[in-house]
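Hey, resending since the last one bounced:
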Amino acid sequence: MVSYLVVFIVIVLIMLREKQVRPARLWVIPVLLIGVMFSTISSIKLTPLSMMMYISCLIVGLGIGVWKGKLEKIRMNHTRGAVTTKSSIAGIILFFGILLVRILVGHWSREHAWISLTNALMFIPLGSICSRRYIIYLRYKQLMGE
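The structure tokens again:
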């Protein structure tokens, strides 16, 4: 439990730090997550119900990502000549809420029926990260005048 707390504190500190937006690197984490998700669901028998859960969680994640992307503080740092981004407190709380739900369902998922739900819940962060990064990219282009 202490290790989870330490990891959460480190994540919060990283999320509250102002970071430079590098458009060429925005796609790296989403591609890695997509690879992990496909390797996870490829080893499980897909049913129509599980596919519906995956798609619905992905849609929820995309919506959350748009919301988080609009909460991001993105500004032009004129001294460095770079666009920087910083997560908002609401975005961090939302991130930890989703993570807590995922941990709780994973803890209760000792039965096979819950395994599909825990896998589906992984599509929420995937959709969230993809759409949040897309919103950041759009706002980056707007600030750069492209």
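The mean pLDDT is 81.

Sorry for the duplicate.
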